[in-house]
Amino acid sequence: MTLAATQLAAATNENLASISNTLIYSAMAVYTLAFFAYIAEWIFGSRSKVGRTAAALTAPDTAKADAPAVTVNKAGGGTAVLERPKVVVRSSAGSRDVPDGPGAHGGDEQGDLFGRVAVSLTVLAFVVEAAGVVARAASVQRAPWGNMYEFNITFSTVAVGVWLGLLALRKNVRWLGLILITTVLLDLGLAVTVLYTASDQLVPALHSYWLYIHVSTAIFCGAAFYVGAAGALAYLFKDSYEAKLARGGKPGILATSVLERLPSSASLDKFSYRINAAVFPLWTFTIIAGAIWAGDAWGRYWGWDPKETWSFITWVAYAGYLHARATAGWKGRKAAYLALIAFACWLFNYYGVNFLFSGKHSYAGV
Amino acid sequence: MSKTTASDTGQVPAEDQDLGAAGSRLSTAPQEEQPHLPALGVVGWVRWFWRQLTSMRVALLLLLLLSLAAIPGSVIPQTGIDALKVADFRQRHTTLAPIYDKLGLFHVYSSVWFSAIYILLFVSLIGCIVPRTWQFVGQLRGRPPAAPRRLTRLPAYTTWRSEADPEQVREAALALLKKRRFRAHVAGDAVAAEKGYLREAGNLVFHIALIVMLVAFAWGQLYKSEGNKLIVQGGGFSNTLTQYDDFKSGNLFSQDDLDPFSFRLNKFTGTYELTGPNRGTPRTYEADVTYSVGAYGKEQRTTIKVNEPLEIGDSKVYLVSHGYAPVITVRDARGKIVMNKEAVPLLPLDGNVTSSGAIKVMDGYRNAKGEKEQLGFQAFFLPTYGGKGSTMLSAFPALLNPMLALNAYHGDLGVDSGVPQSVYQLNKKKLTEFKDSKGELFKQQLKIGETMTLPGGAGSVTFEGVKEWAGFQVTRQPGSGWALVGAVAAILGLAASLFIQRRRVWVRAVTGDDGVTVVEMAGLGRSESAKVPEELGDLAALLYDRAPGAPDAGDDGPGADTPDAAASGDAPGDDDPSSRASVPAEGAEQK
Ligand code: HEM
User: Fold this and answer.
1) Ligand 1 within 6 A of B289 CB?
2) Closest ligand 1 atom to B210 CA
3) What average pLDDT does the structure give for chain B?
4) Is B28 part of the contact surface with chain A (CB cutoff 8 Å)?
5) Euclidean distance between CA atoms B331 and B336, whole angstroms
6) What is the Cα–Cα distance from B509 to B166, expressed in whole angstroms?
7) Cα(A293)–Cα(A151) distance, rounded to whole angstroms?
8) Residue A275 and residue A227: Cα distance in Å, rounded?
9) DSSP assignments along A174-203, one per residue
10) What DSSP state is assigned to residue A105?
11) Which residue has the higher pLDDT, B279 or A62?
């Protein structure tokens, strides 16, 4: 390249970088609007006062037994005679037979409207943020995962993407919206203030296609683990709530209002488990890909560098969680606590290790 | 069902026992036993201990313990990672350090207690895997268990009254299930079928793969070797022990394990960011080498980069460091050349490759009085010197304005004293400073081509030029292939284990009291999944086509909303409520 061409390229890159910054700030603005819409959804939803859980837990047995908890009816309606047989589903031993809550809007029409607006705004913000990440990638001409700023903006984009994906698959996850967007705003706030790094290229140790594989799966795993951990946390609250009701206790008004609208503890538990279990093989792969990359870059596959150590700890913690779910006396709440601890390990590996320890994984500023 | 909470899953009532058998063995997980103490002497105790060790509970505790035990190693400096940091820590914490030493906290991952945890875990794992494998083989050889008496108790259930004969229905069901790749057979009045054995196989493969990986790592530790070699541009290396600057190896390593090869460094290239906030950050490091394998191998040329080691046999040659080697000519008092254009490698001190080291003239030098003596120079080198008045730190890593600063000494370098000494440091014990006109240590800054004349006609030093050097690490890690195989198997096994459902389906067809055939279908999965009822619905729809519904007495149609099916006489409604809580939907895992 001639000198002029180099300068031109540098100017384009700087242009792209500033476009990326603008997009990220715009995404934050839209997320903030979405945040208020979610709040409105919860507030309007609190107008509905249905005590479904208590009703389900105290309903007389005979009435319950006649009406199956859930019926799955696959053949969309049809005439009575040709309809396929209906399948009756029973919940397993030990789980409470509680219906899922209606979601944040609590069945309130206005609440639902705000909820839909919030989701639409989230989709818009997601698109803008994704564009910001892509522009950043274009400006540095590599994958946007060279420093913690880039890692953060990619991370929140993927977390929102995972959640929107689950919504698109018609999973019962809309209740998670407010928590998710709150953390996304925190994550982005941290990114643009503390972690901001001007766009730049990578040190030679980071040049490898394993970077793309290892870091992209790590980000995806973190985002999905986050959603799983949120499910586990919600499970713990809802489970205490149900247990209190089953004992004949009377939970507070706020707890009732909020928790009545969440899915049942059994659903939350399953939701959290499915996500964590589905991501665990990928997390295993991430660590192995990292080891292969380390083998190429630093001449050893595993050196107990703090980052490596903490991804190992995270891995073992998640393995412990999966084990707990198959171990008598550890299912339910204890397993959920393990899921939270495991996610805390992941977070610590991401933030704590970069700031507290210096290891081979610290480069490009932070 | 209604009043069930997590705690009241007590015992299985007698009427549900047959379901217990049908629901069992969906997993080969060890059954939990209460840790009651044995009364049976030594054998009893050993057996008890073994049972405990191989129980799921202890496996879980060991797993959690392992993750806890890994933490200190990330907080406390480790000898294996950064020995300098450990030394520094020892100096600053004189009371803590000996305690840490006793506890092995400076080498956590090879300490007794860390090893104890993972060895116990792996003993537990083997003790768990072997019986599980046998059990699984038994399950594969056996047949799916017969239908429980009351299918209504299963997590997914459906029923209808059909015009077809019971026998016809069973035949159709058997064919259908087999076509769907269930293992199915007729047992009594019902078809019993099972699918998803790959789940269990995957789980076993995963755990076995963990053992393979551990053995591969242990093997690698015992036989590994790792050596470093610094090569100046144009220099060469052949892979024998004596050629290494330093060398580490596992306990069972022998010299014959070294792969025979040699290589020569033709050129090292480093490029750096020229502008911006990250000015000076390295962009590329490349070593252009010529290598040959075996004693008389053909010469080949290649490039070694930071992420792209050269692989020869089991060995990998990594590019790990680089620096500069000023080329020096030294003349003695008589003008005789005692060091001829020798490249002296210096050690980099910072990111901009400010370097330091020592130039040692050991033989052949005679001073102004004609006596034999040795010369020593403390050397500082800046690839980019900021100019007069700037600091003695390099401003950029590339050779933009090289400057060499020398402090001159003469006397005895102490190299023959038998104590090994660093080539980068001067042992000044028996050295005397050259003095300048003010009586201070004689030092001078040189640009390429400049010569420094030593005081008192003691000779001269010429800075001829600069060569680059590259540091290479040669490692041999046998067993890494097996570790990779284990890792891949672990991931595949894990995916099978977590994504595949093992489930059972039963189809019962009997003639009801009114002479009409009653078809009942039920499904059971290892964990509650929406997939089991969905699949049962699909199967039921298909079977319904082959065994169409019979008009109901009450004209309710086959798709009646409730499965109370008067014909079956077994509606959930007329059960004793206390027994409802105990449907063992999770099969073998009931407490
Ligand atoms: C080296 C340490 C171990 C690790 C990292 C590990 C990891 C895992 C993981 C991730 C799972 C979940 C996969 C699944 O649910 O199918 C699992 C399941 C299982 N593990 Fe382990 N495990 C270890 C040791 C053991 C030991 C010592 C035992 C025996 C006592 C054992 C028995 C089992 C069983 C029976 C399951 C299946 C549970 C079920 O049926 O859901 N594991 N293990």
Assistant:
1) no
2) 1
3) 82
4) no
5) 5
6) 5
7) 18
8) 8
9) GGGHHHHHHHHHHHHHHHHHTS--------
10) T
11) B279
Positive or negative, the CA dihedral A318, A323, A325, A327 is negative
Atom of ligand 1 nearest to the CA of B28: 35
Q: How far is CA B361 from CA A132, B162, B328, B412, B430, in A?
A: 61, 105, 11, 10, 14
Answer for the pair B385, B395: CB distance below 8 angstroms, yes or no: yes
Q: Ligand 1 within 6 A of B56 CB?
A: yes
> What is the predicted pLDDT for the residue at B22?
67
Amino acid identity at A136: R
Which residues 131-170 of A have a C-beta within 8 angstroms of B? none
Judge whether A359 lies within some domain. Answer: yes
pLDDT tens-digit map of A251-309: 888 888 888 888 888 889 989 999 999 999 999 999 999 998 888 777 778 888 888 89
The greatest distance separating any two alpha carbons of chain B, rounded to the nearest whole angstrom, comes to 131
Interface of A with B in 53-92 (CB under 8 A): 56-57, 59-62, 64-69, 71-75, 80-81, 83-92
* Residues in chain B within 8 Å Cβ distance of A280: 494, 498
Q: Is the per-residue pLDDT at A156 higher than 90?
A: yes
**How many whole angstroms from B66 Cα to the centroid of ligand 1?**
14
The answer to the question of residue A360 being in a domain is yes
| Contact between B27 and A326 using a beta-carbon 8 Å cutoff | yes
Q: Does A332 touch chain B (CB under 8 A)?
A: yes
Q: Which residues of B touch A284 (CB under 8 A)?
A: 487, 490-491, 494
**What pLDDT, on the 0 to 100 scale, is given for residue A58?**
64
Between residues 233 and 262 of chain A, which touch chain B (CB distance below 8 Å)?
243, 246
Task: Considering only the C-alpha atoms of chain A, give the largest distance between any 2 of them, rounded to a whole number of Å.
Answer: 85
How many structural domains is chain A composed of? 1
Q: Is A322 in the pocket of ligand 1 (CB under 6 A)?
A: yes
Residue A305 with chain B: CB contacts under 8 Å? 81
pLDDT of A49: 65
Residue B562: is its pLDDT beyond 50?
Answer: no
User: Does the beta carbon of B58 sit less than 6 angstroms from any atom of ligand 1?
Assistant: no
> Please, are residues B527 and B150 in contact by the beta-carbon 8 Å criterion?
no
**CA distances to B362, B367, B457, B589 from B373, in Å:** 8, 7, 14, 85
Q: Which amino acid is at B351?
A: G
The whole-angstrom separation of Cα B23 and Cα B585 is: 7
Q: Is residue A22 part of a domain?
A: no
Q: Is B179 exposed, middle or buried (0-12, 13-18, 19+ CB in 10 A)?
A: exposed
Distance B18 CA to ligand 1 centre (A): 28
Interface of B with A in 79-98 (CB under 8 A): 80-81
For residue B65, which of B30, B124, B116, B110 has the smallest C-alpha distance? B116
**What confidence tens digit (pLDDT) does each residue in A12-39 have?**
677 888 888 899 999 999 999 999 999 9
Q: How many CB atoms lie within 10 A of CB B251?
A: 8
Cβ atoms B458, B369 nearer than 8 A: no
Distance CA B172, CA B190 (A): 12
d(CA A362, CA B478): 29
Tell me the pLDDT tens digit for each residue of B228-281: 899 999 998 988 888 888 888 888 888 888 888 999 999 999 888 777 666 777
Six-digit token pair at A148? Answer: 């913690």
Torsion of CA B482, B487, B490, B495, to 10 degrees: -140
Q: What domain range includes position A213?
A: 69-100+202-366
- Of A59, A84, A281, nearest to B540 by CB-CB distance is A84
**pLDDT of amino acid B159:** 87
Closest ligand 1 atom number to CA of residue A318: 10
Residues of A in contact with B85 (CB under 8 A): none
**A57 domain-assigned:** no
Q: In this model, does residue B485 exceed pLDDT 80?
A: yes
Q: What was the ipTM of the complex prediction?
A: 0.84
